[in-house]
Design a protein that fits this description.
396 residues, Aspartate Aminotransferase, domain 1, Aspartate Aminotransferase, domain 2, 2 domains, four-stranded antiparallel β-sheet, globular
Length: 396
Amino acid sequence: MPERNLDFDKIVDRKKTKCLKYDFAVRRGYPEDVLPLWVADMDFKTTSYVEDTLKEVVTHNIYGYTNIQRGDGFFEAVAGWMKRHHDWEVLPEWHVHTPGVCFAIANAIRAYTSVGDAVIIQQPVYYPFSSIIVQNERKLVSNDLVYDGAGHYSIDFEDFEKKIKDNDVKLFVLCNPHNPVGRVWTKEELEKLGDICKKYNVLVFSDEIHFDFIWSGKHHIFQEIKPEFREFTITATSPSKTFNLAGAQQSNIFIPNRELKHKFVKQYDVSGLDEPNRFGIAATEAAYTYGDEWYEAVKKYIKNNIEFAKDYIERELKGVRLVPTEGTYLIWLDFSDTGVDAKTVDNLIVNKAKLWLDSGRIFGKVGNGFQRINVACPRSILEEALSRIKKCLEEV
């Protein structure tokens, strides 16, 4: 059966579907009529193979306890995707299924560290990293990324090592590729990070959820940089970003070290979560088995959206700089040259432009003056959002 859901220009009404992106503005403190381009899910229908598979599940009409095991097709679908798209051989004995990457991060923090232990991140970074660390009563340490003011972020390795040493850091949560700054870390950068972590016995949780959207450079699986990195790395992947399945709550975690995996699973068992969701399992298997055509098409569309945004911003938004997007479908805008302070920019975006974006301040102090925009939407929506930003800046 041919793929049907390839019209990415079509606007799908998501309102009144209990949709976090569209239905919770007022509850989150925003005007009811804002146009949302914040949370990282797509405004596109996913592959029709997921649609057809879920119809079969519904028609069966029995929704009892579900689980996965070797040989039933689920892991084979996951492994097939990793091999086809990343030339990565994953083994079934590494695999742990979780209901999400954030859940897995929290689980890892509790499994491998104690209350008061230090966990290091690299801000500005995906904001749940910080909240999960703090809520679990661990010490938050940031090796802030270095911004050159002209659109490039880099890692301060000297600061990274010093922070680890001075704070006796136990765990590093790596964002690879990086959300929100869009960096696709080079092999050399990842190797330096890994060598430092090995030197100080720091475990690495590598969040690689955006690794199917790479526009510049090459994505490197952190644990595969060096054979010894497998011994201290937990790698997180998910179909949620790739196939717009966040609501299906499916993530695949790979832990080659048997002792680390045992600790992770033991902590997972304590949570009380058990059998995975029937619909999510079916959707993941279908997407990874049959979704290649849809994936390649949506990737092309998003890439064109990024290019459109780049051209529009350079031409129309004076003082706004688009940080080069090497990976992810999230663009990171620097408003520092507009002459408008960060707090005022936040207010203009929400109350004048009537847009719900992600303010840079929530990604850490070093994110002040930036805005994150999700461009995985129909072109007309993206163009409307950018035109609203233009208009409100012109009227300042």
